[in-house]
Known about the structure:
By secondary structure, this protein is of the alpha+beta class. The chain has helices at residues 2-16, 18-25, 61-70, 73-76, 80-103, 110-136, 139-152, 169-180, 185-192, 196-199, 215-223, 256-282, and strands spanning 50-54, 57-60, 157-166, 204-209, 234-236, 239-250. Strands 4-3-6-5 form a four-stranded antiparallel beta sheet, sandwiched between helices. It has a two-stranded antiparallel ribbon with strand order 1-2.
Amino acid sequence: MVQRVFRTALLSVAACGIALAAHAQTPAPATPAPAAAPAASTPAAPADPVVARVNGEELHKSDVTRMVSQLPPQVQQMPIEMIYPAVIDQLISGKLVAMAGQKAGLADSAEVKEELKRAEERAVQRAFIQKEIKARITPEALDKAYQDYLKENPAQEEVKAAHILVEKEDEAKAIIAQLKKGADFAKLAKEKSKDAAAAAQGGDLGYFTKDAMVEPFAKAAFAMKPGEVSKEPVKTQFGWHIIKVEDKRTQPQPTLEEVKPQLEQALSKDIVTALVEELRGKAKIETFQIDGSPMPKEEPAAAPATPAPAAPATPAEPAKK
């Protein structure tokens, strides 16, 4: 099965040029330094060792890494020892196919040169964008984005409550009467509530914001004070609730570190948009129709019609006598 996956991947690489793009765009990962310096008598292992030779041309560990990075995620998760023989086999096959193409003079063909040009252009695009993003996402930019985030996502009030859920109003009222006489809320929740998950915790629902609960329940809970039990059952589509509010607090807002990846992603999008607009603003751009002919000229907007001056009023003739 592994061999079949690799053969499919190889064909895809050959057909779509993925190997070329990956080789041009994906740097080999750095090999970690050894934990301790080797003894003087032991030669240091090469950073990117040769793993095969095909007609004298070398394949390196970095080639293995690149190929693995192109394979399906489930294959990438396999231990390298398990897939290494198949990777080497397919790298050798790919190298042989490439050699045959070069021998046939295809490296100098217009098609291959155009593909190389496009691959280089994509790599340069990505490198330039990454450089600009790195330069523009400054600590100051991140802090401003964080402050904007806090303003747009103000801290919400939270309630910590427990409940007992039953099917009938009379049953709920009977439970409220028991609670008024000193019955233990958690004990009754475990015995009577049909919300099994909460019942196992003595009815505890933890902290929640107003929009996390159905409206009748949230409205009742947020109107109560800590330590208070609802005086009347609260009806929702789930049944009848007896609510006990245990605590209220303002929801803690996330720290900068917690939202940093999200902010960096948003800033990156904004930076790319602004960067493209800057470049377009400085460039001379000409566009043509799909057949290469000139674009039709846009007719200038018609000037608003100037109203004709009113004709002077003709004096009325005097009435004849």
